[in-house]
Amino acid sequence: MKTEVITTMISLVFLVHFAITISPNAQPSWLFSLMSLSLAVVAVIVPLVVTTTCHARKNTDATTTIPGPRGWPLVGSLLVVSGPLMHRRLAALADAHSARRLMSLTLGATPVVISSHPETARDILSGAAFVDRPPKAAARELMFCRAIGFAPTGEYWRRLRRITGAGMLSPRRMAMLRGLRCRVADSMIQRVADQMERSGEVAMRALLQRASLESMVGSVLGLEGDAVCEELGEMVREGYELVGMFNLEDHYYKTSWGPLMDLWGVRPMCRELAAMVRGYFGKIIQERRLAGDCHERADLLSYMLSLPEEEKLEDSDVIAVLWEMIFRGVDVVAILLEWAMARMSLHPDIQSKAQEEMDAAVGVRRRRAITDSDVPNLAFLQWILKETLRMHPPGPLLSWARLAVQDARVGKHVVPAGTTAMVNMWAISHDEAIWGDPWVFRPERFAAAAAGEEVSVLGSDLRLAPFGSGRRVCPGRMMGLATAQLWLGRLLQEYRWLPPPANKPVELAECLRLSMEMKTPLVCRAVPRRRGGRPPAAA
Ligand code: HEM
């Protein structure tokens, strides 16, 4: 800190000197001006270097034994790893440094450790130290620090997890929302028919996002209809862009320069959106209070408003939680299903197997639509989703990193408090030593496991933990999985899916923003599997 203060003072002297030199009254020689300009440039750069190195060194001193790239002054390895394929770059870097178990690097001025191995991943995700999230400017401005995702681990965060569990994400509550998920599936299937009739192809991304949005708006707010979906859809889309934007401030938050690094104005844009979200949700809360029918409804908002007085949250906190649930729930489920459908149109043999399994379970002639209660008997369908989560995890770096609140042991290393920790789940789920032929899409690989050793994707098995693990594991994982299983089943039950016309091939290129999307949105063709072409309503 002392060094930082001294360099900043010296720099200020140089800057003042430069300001005097260029003032209208001064008439310096060109050589003098040049010298002064050079000193001014040095004055800006030196404190940056000193501050970043000071913060990076604190970590390096404690983690010198952890292998990893040294990085550049000022930026560390930020420029080397950032970008839409960050998970792949980090995996390659870990291999290059023989650092799969734990790699240490600096991103900007932030010390980071990364695990690409199930054992060290468990130390990070399930240990007592990495229980907070590192600060992220967009998340703070968009109120997520008052919601589950970015609230520090503590009494408030535990209370939110309890409330959202009991009010929406528990098996009992999910069962109450079963009808909604089936209705949304019906209208999705109807839209497929309409799009095929209109254009001979189906734009899958828009279709799945709309379904996901309808389901979340119904579950969280108990509302349905085009108007609310369009308005909220627009806000979610904008929030998703902002949270996914590269913001230098997030990598320099430990330095006094941090707030100056928001070069693209992410904070003000987030503030504007947050004001809109507050206004919109605030109005819905008032209307629900006036309606006075909270006890008769099954949505999260009604549940939160009917909590006993001692459990009640401030309205601003209710808004933060509702907004986060919709925000988190919409994109991941749609992205997961888009990848699954891409795989289905590329692997007709796998698709047919899933369809045969469903036909055998619910009959072919007077077939009824599958429901949640059929899913436990549809092992192959479940394996398809597991294999999709393995090859295309929506959060390859588990979406949001963890922050050590105290020194912690990871493998054989000690990681100091204040270090950011990431788990490269994509690298683990593509590790040849764990998965045999990791680049092949083969749902049957889970059959061997089913015979004895089950691979659970819910967080207990770190070979495949796409929902994270430990205390901060995804609380929406059961709902996300149940929704994806039901909708994938319905889409396959009603239609045979083909790749799009030759000019729009299915491309499996990835693009990591907040989640890992398909770089080129998926377009498919759908051929009805039942005579007459029109699907039935769910039972
Ligand atoms: C396919 C679906 C989903 C995937 C792949 C997914 C993935 C994840 C991951 C990787 C994390 C970080 C976990 C960790 O740090 O260990 C997370 C956290 C979270 N997810 Fe999900 N998620 C999904 C669906 C949902 C849904 C449907 C909701 C809510 C309706 C939701 C709400 C949350 C919340 C609130 C957190 C923050 C938890 C905390 O910090 O305590 N997610 N999710």
TrEMBL record:
Classification via PROSITE patterns: CYTOCHROME_P450 (PS00086)
Keywords: Heme, Iron, Membrane, Metal-binding, Monooxygenase, Oxidoreductase, Transmembrane, Transmembrane helix
Keyword Translocase: no
Classification lineage: Eukaryota, Viridiplantae, Streptophyta, Embryophyta, Tracheophyta
GO biological process: one example: system development
CDD domains, per database record: CYP78
Bilayer-spanning residue ranges: 6-23, 30-50
Molecular function, one GO term: monooxygenase activity
InterPro entries per record: Cyt_P450, Cyt_P450_CS, Cyt_P450_E_grp-I, Cyt_P450_sf, Cytochrome_P450_78A
Cofactor(s) needed by this chain: heme
Annotated protein name in UniProt: Uncharacterized protein
